[in-house]
Design goal:
The complex is a heterodimer of chains A (55) and B (262). Chain A is mainly α and 55 residues long. In chain A, 53% of the residues lie in helices and 9% in strands. The chains are: A mainly alpha (55), B alpha/beta (262).
Chain lengths: 55, 262
């Protein structure tokens, strides 16, 4: 059984604001490669900080 | 008959330990030796009964004798040696749960180097706080570094730091203490920090809409890895955090579960 994770975003954080802009700029609602990579990195970082293990 | 006796014994022991705790606070030490002796005798008389909890408690007694010899910080010594038994007691012995809960000691954000009782905690609680908050983790220093702790500290809420793997089981069984819910701040159902007035609500609503593209995309991108993506008011200077749902496993529990898998 796995934990049910719910990701919460800090709306006042500059990184999140920037990411939002990136998504808004794009046509098909998906940001460029670099941003995707960065979003992944942030997620993994959050996993670690929250006490999960990265798979 | 035996049942009744064991029940009474357990109760007696708990009272005794409680006394010890109270005395440790008052820094007194002379009287209890006599008490302990009397209890010791009773212990021996009832040795035949083998209730689990009782043997637990019995252990407690013995070590209590020990701790008496060291005059200072007796309860601390007791706790360091037998805190686990008390925690187990809270989990397993539902009839004495509340009594045992009074004996629990945890570290807290108020003073991370000292152990605090739940009553201390309640005494320091803010007037609008109806929940006992805790955060489980691997070690005290790791917990203190957690990004979700910051905002609670900022706003003056005290959070208990549970660095022992068994602690989370204990708090899960406790669920309520002195009519106050006991909750982990790493779960998503804690609403202590949420503003309740209308303006703030409107603002979060707005933020939610504003961030919709991002949350939608993130959810799509991560797929099944996460249950949902939401806007948080609990974070201070970290961009995101992963909470766990109220009834599911917590991060700590997942780790324990994995360690047990064979």
């Amino acid at each position: 059984m796995m934990a049910k994770k719910s990701l919460e975003i800090n709306p006042s954080h500059p990184v999140m604001k920037a990411l939002l802009e990136k998504i808004k700029e794009s046509d098909d609602n998906s940001p460029d490669e670099a941003s995707i990579e960065y979003a992944d990195l942030l997620y993994q970082m959050a996993l670690l900080q929250s006490g999960f293990a990265i798979e | 008959m035996i049942k009744v006796m064991s029940k009474k014994l357990v109760r007696k022991t708990i009272d005794m330990i409680k006394e010890l705790a109270a005395e440790a606070e008052e820094e007194e030490s002379s009287e209890e030796e006599a008490d302990a002796d009397a209890d010791g005798e009773k212990k021996e008389e009832s040795e035949e009964k083998e209730d689990e909890e009782k043997s637990d408690e019995k252990k407690d007694d013995e070590e209590k004798d020990k701790s008496e010899e060291e005059e200072e910080d007796k309860y601390l010594t007791f706790w360091n040696n037998f805190g686990k038994s008390i925690k187990l007691g809270v989990i397993e012995d539902s009839s004495n749960r509340l009594k045992l809960a009074k004996l629990l000691r945890f570290y807290s954000t108020e003073d991370p180097d000292k152990l605090h009782s739940l009553d201390d905690y309640i005494g320091r609680m803010k007037s609008d706080q109806d929940t006992i908050l805790y955060l489980p983790g691997d070690s005290k220093s790791a917990i203190l570094k957690s990004p979700i702790l910051k905002k609670y500290k900022q706003k003056g809420y005290e959070v208990l730091l549970l660095d022992d793997p068994i602690d989370e089981f204990t708090t899960q069984h406790l669920t309520e203490y002195e009519k106050r819910k006991v909750k982990s701040i790493a779960k998503d159902d804690v609403s202590v920090l949420e503003d309740s007035d209308k303006n703030a609500k409107k603002k979060t609503q707005k933020l939610k809409e504003m961030y919709k593209p991002l949350t939608d995309w993130y959810k799509k991108h991560l797929g099944k890895q996460v249950e949902k993506v939401a806007i948080s008011q609990k974070l201070d200077d970290s961009p995101l955090f992963i909470f766990t749902s109220q009834y599911g496993f917590s991060a700590q529990m997942e780790k324990i579960n994995k360690a047990q898998a064979f």
